[in-house]
Amino acid sequence: MRLQNKVAVITGAASGFGAGTARLFATEGAAVVVADISDEAGESVADSINSSGGKAVYVHADVTSRDDTRNMIDAAEKLGGRLDILINNAGYSHPNKEFATVTDHEFDRVYDVNVKAVFIAIQEALPVFRRNGGGCIINTSSTAALRPRPGLAVYCSSKGAVSNLTKALAVELAPDKIRVNAICPVIGETGMLETFMGVPDTPENRKKFEATIPLGRFSTPNDIAQTLLFLSSDDAEFLTGVALEVDGGRCV
Ligand SMILES: NC(=O)c1ccc[n+]([C@@H]2O[C@H](COP(=O)([O-])OP(=O)(O)OC[C@H]3O[C@@H](n4cnc5c(N)ncnc54)[C@H](O)[C@@H]3O)[C@@H](O)[C@H]2O)c1
Prior knowledge:
Blueprint: E1 7-11, H1 16-27, E2 31-36, H2 39-51, E3 55-60, H3 66-80, E4 85-88, H4 104-132, E5 135-140, H5 153-173, E6 178-185, H6 193-197, H7 203-210, H8 221-232, E7 243-246
Parallel strand pairs: 1-2, 1-4, 2-3, 4-5, 5-6, 6-7
The protein binds nicotinamide-adenine-dinucleotide (NAD).
């Protein structure tokens, strides 16, 4: 088991990439804090982990709230006595639409969930990581940061901020033995698929997007979970400041 005795917090873990990652991390020995605002789905992810022999707890945490975030980090210490891995996965986008029609409220929401929440979570986790003598942070960026699609300019720019924050902090936190990496998934089969496509999820519409990915398919929660597992494990102990594409060649 590659995460034996480790404790992980995963935000946005009630569905999609986050849920897949919570399940894989638990089978690899990690105790997992499943954090989300979608309570029923989040409870169900934690229950399924616990009933299959793993260790997890669901915590209601709106990542835009500092109080919720502090509570989420505390939950890790209550669950496993420490914190080793923080996965900042929760994300939001307005539906794909023309830039000129994006409202101030939509802009603020995108930046609050995708960028400010990462700032808050890392600040709240830092004292715990420092006490433990190190830690691992992985932020979910996107291929949107590297190869933007039209209709998502605000979302794309927010993920650019996530990638750059990752690199800046990798350097700043290296003396504390805290590794900071990001992943850049290509469009995936999750709750956000229609939001990104901006058209109904039909086989014809999927084909148009799949045609833009050299390996010919969308990313899956398992693709993302396996990548996060590697980056979180001791096998990646010399990797920091990486924003790794998980994209079937989309960004080549
Ligand atoms: N699906 C894609 O095509 C794709 C591609 C690249 C990057 N991403 C990124 O992957 C991450 C995970 O998204 P997903 O595709 O699994 O989508 P998803 O909708 O299946 O999961 C996102 C989760 O985040 C939670 N969430 C939203 N706002 C929150 C908040 N304020 N506090 C706590 N939780 C909140 C949602 O409840 C949901 O459970 C996001 O950061 C997203 O931007 C997705």
